[in-house]
Amino acid sequence: MNRKQLKTLDSIFAVPTRANIKFGDLEKLMSALEAELIEGRGSGIAFVMPSGLKWEAHRPHLQKEAKKYQIESLRDFLVLAGVRDE
Q1: Is residue 49 in some structural domain?
Q2: Three-state DSSP class for 34?
């Protein structure tokens, strides 16, 4: 994981939840964590970790930033996956 991906990980776990994290940065972070990207219909995507855990989301429209609920959902997912403690 490079420095930018570590910074993105720190941003995900920041409290209060940040609203300025680019969705593309989340995708790059998940790729660095060896999660497999599965493209769905339209803007739907899923990431499957090597352990089998799956996180689903929709790419945002008309903006680049992830929604707060997506950040919170990903935070919970990363804790379950054992990437980081709360």
Answers
A1: yes
A2: coil
Spell out where 16-53 has E strands. 36-39, 44-48
pLDDT by position in tens, the chain (length 86): 899 999 999 999 999 999 999 999 999 999 999 999 999 989 999 999 999 999 999 999 889 999 999 999 999 999 999 998 77
How many domains does the structure of the chain reveal? 1
Taking the C-alpha atoms of residue 17 and residue 47, their distance in angstroms, rounded to an integer, is 21
Asked, for residue 85, whether it belongs to a domain, the answer is no
Where in the sequence is the domain holding 27, given as residue range(s)? 3-80
Cα(47)–Cα(80) distance, rounded to whole angstroms? Answer: 14
Residue keyed to tokens 């919970």: 76
pTM: 0.91
